[in-house]
Amino acid sequence: MPAHIEDYALLGNCRSAALVSRDGSIDWLCLPRFDAPAVFAALLGNEENGRWRLAPSDPVQQCMRRYLDDTLVLETVWTTAAGQARVLDCMPMGEQNAVVRIVEGISGQTHFELDLVMRFDYGRSVPWVERLDPLSLSAVAGPDRLILRSTVGLHAMDHHSVCRFRVGAGERQVFALRHQPSHLPDEADFDADEALAHTISHWRSFAARCPDIGPNSALVRRSLLTLKALTYAPTGGIVAAATTSLPERIGGERNWDYRFCWLRDATMTLLAFMNLGYFDEAQAWREWLLRSVAGNPEQMQIMYGLAGERDLAEFTLPWLAGYEHSSPVRIGNAASGQRQLDIYGEVADAMSQALKGGLPRHPRSAAIARLIMPYVESIWREPDEGIWEVRGGRQHFVHSKVMAWVAFDRAASLAETTEEGREQGQHYRRVAEQIHREVCEQGLDASGQHFVQAYGSKDLDASLLQIALTGFLPAEDPRFLRTLEQIEQRLMNNGLLLRYDTDSGGDGLTPGEGTFLVCSFWLADVYVLLGRQEQAQALYDHLTGLCNDVGLLAEQYDPIGQRMLGNFPQAFSHIGIINTALNLHRAQCPARDRASSG
């Protein structure tokens, strides 16, 4: 049985990521990149699907863990009756696809046991393991190879590699596991201590650029580090989460692969980076975007692979039982073929803010915009699957139409800044006005009092909060205020928002899921816009209080069971931590401009 989702910490090297449970087991690791087949897949099955546990063999009296300040290096301090020791876990920055685990004695004598279960292809393939020398192992299956170098010899036991050892005060043992293609000669070993020092320096240098925004600064830096860890450095792509198929309801079917680059999620991550002054990341993402979407605008997808791959075919892994028997386990994502109108608005908004933030115009962006905007003009009246990627058929989602308005509003603003673009900008402005008029006529409920999820619907949707956050309507508009009241009354679950009511059956899936955390951050942002600072701060404190002991959030939360749900850690949730903190800070600093996180 895997640990609870909230019991995991993240390791990362901006190429891939590992999840380490509170009991010292690495239960998830994909190498050499986020979307590669897992070499440890116990998270979605059991220990025979691959894991690496390193923990005291004696009864543990206390276990305390934290990240070393402003890093992604995890420190776990174990206390037993006989002694105390710490384990430092990291994925070294640089070209190594590796995990380093260093055990250091603090006092007394602490006995440890190590259980390394190496598997390939999401836990299906048992490799051929052989000893290279007394302190080194090699595991090979098909195209993959793992090599373990250690200061303690391991021995085989039932397709596991195990050992027991002890450390006294001042003593240490080092374990380094590295991945490489099996057909290549052995890559040169790296010095684990140097790799650790370099990794600490790298993360601290990155975090040091983050501005001080008052009492929430530590939370923001941790979320910033998490978002950076979800960035694939070779291309600039940003994954939505490090995992696949962690369920939105325990035992349910809402299990999706999030190890891809959604334009929506990546764009909001980009805005969070820019809001904190990280324009190198913004520029790398813009380059990724312009490479990925280049070509026929009709072929623009809502998500891509880490390098811009388009084929994200979805299939299931029947040999994995799923997290707490939540099946199926899915690889790939069929939503990549959906139409989601909102992505055009999010991309246009990000490109607009990038220019306002000081990024120079990209020579290709204007040409691509000239192709994409006419296409959006031709399709905005059509239904789509919407922001929540429903699988029950296309609808005229109000949020989608609002974001289509954003696309033309931002495109008009950009075009109007140049003499040659003024006429084009006026055209975009007219299209925006058409969309605005239709939404205000058809996007309201039958009484005309408040907005609804889709034309002709009675349902509510938390994405309607973006009506105010994007500037589609002022937050004080009576129609929006009544929408806000309805959202609070009908979607609030123990102080947190559902994204919509899944019991309506309109999304084509079995009802039931947790509260969607980023929606509650949007609600806090709306409160800021309305000047309800105490409400905003209280909600923000409630949300950030849900972070686990190392500051991480999943996609959703079950307020009844008090458990995290969904893929982990989730970029959307950490974007919420950053942007709402910035909005609260700006509201408390009159000399600075207030801005929404929309």
UniProtKB/TrEMBL annotation:
<protein>
    <submittedName>
        <fullName>Glycoside hydrolase family 15 protein</fullName>
    </submittedName>
</protein>
<feature type="domain" description="Trehalase-like N-terminal">
    <location>
        <begin position="3"/>
        <end position="127"/>
    </location>
</feature>
<dbReference type="Pfam" id="PF19291">
    <property type="entry name" value="TREH_N"/>
</dbReference>
<dbReference type="GO" id="GO:0004553">
    <property type="term" value="F:hydrolase activity, hydrolyzing O-glycosyl compounds"/>
</dbReference>
<dbReference type="InterPro" id="IPR012341">
    <property type="entry name" value="6hp_glycosidase-like_sf"/>
</dbReference>
<dbReference type="GO" id="GO:0005975">
    <property type="term" value="P:carbohydrate metabolic process"/>
</dbReference>
<keyword id="KW-0378">Hydrolase</keyword>
<dbReference type="InterPro" id="IPR045582">
    <property type="entry name" value="Trehalase-like_N"/>
</dbReference>
<dbReference type="InterPro" id="IPR011613">
    <property type="entry name" value="GH15-like"/>
</dbReference>
<dbReference type="InterPro" id="IPR008928">
    <property type="entry name" value="6-hairpin_glycosidase_sf"/>
</dbReference>
<feature type="domain" description="GH15-like">
    <location>
        <begin position="218"/>
        <end position="581"/>
    </location>
</feature>
<dbReference type="Pfam" id="PF00723">
    <property type="entry name" value="Glyco_hydro_15"/>
</dbReference>
